C-alpha cells in the first residue's frame, strides 16, 4: 500500500470522527480507496439546491474535485502532497435534490514527479451520467531535511 493511500484513509477516518472537512460537510462517504482509484458518494438534499431547485453545480464540482484529487493522493510517496491546478467539469443533466445517491469515480491518468492528471465521472442511482471532468494537479515532492 502506498504511503499516500494510507494517509488518505487516516484523513478520511479522522474527518468522519471529528466532522471536519468538506467530505463531512457534504456527507460524502468513501466507497472505494485503492491506488489510482477512488469512489465517493453523497445523497443531495434541499440544502444543495441552486435557485432553480436542482443540485448546484458546485456540489458536483466538489464531488469530482475530491474524487479525482484523492485518486492522485493515493499514488503519492510518504511526505509528498498535491494541489489542484485546473478543474474542468462538464454537466450532462440536471440532478434533482430528491434524486437519490450520487456516485463519483476518480481515476488517475498520469502521475509524474511534478504533475498528475485524473478523470472522474458522476452517476445517479440509475447509473446515468450526470457530470464528468478532468483535473491537473501539481505534485510537491517530499521535503528532505538538510
UniProtKB/TrEMBL annotation:
Cited Gene3D superfamilies: Hotdog Thioesterase
UniProt keyword list: Hydrolase
The enzyme's E.C. designation: 3.1.2.-
Single GO MF annotation: hydrolase activity
Transmembrane segments: none
Superkingdom of origin organism: Bacteria
SUPFAM superfamilies registered for this protein in UniProt: Thioesterase/thiol ester dehydrase-isomerase
Record Pfam families: 4HBT
UniProt-listed NCBIfam families: unchar_dom_1
Full protein name: PaaI family thioesterase
Lineage of source species: Bacteria, Bacillati, Actinomycetota, Actinomycetes, Streptosporangiales
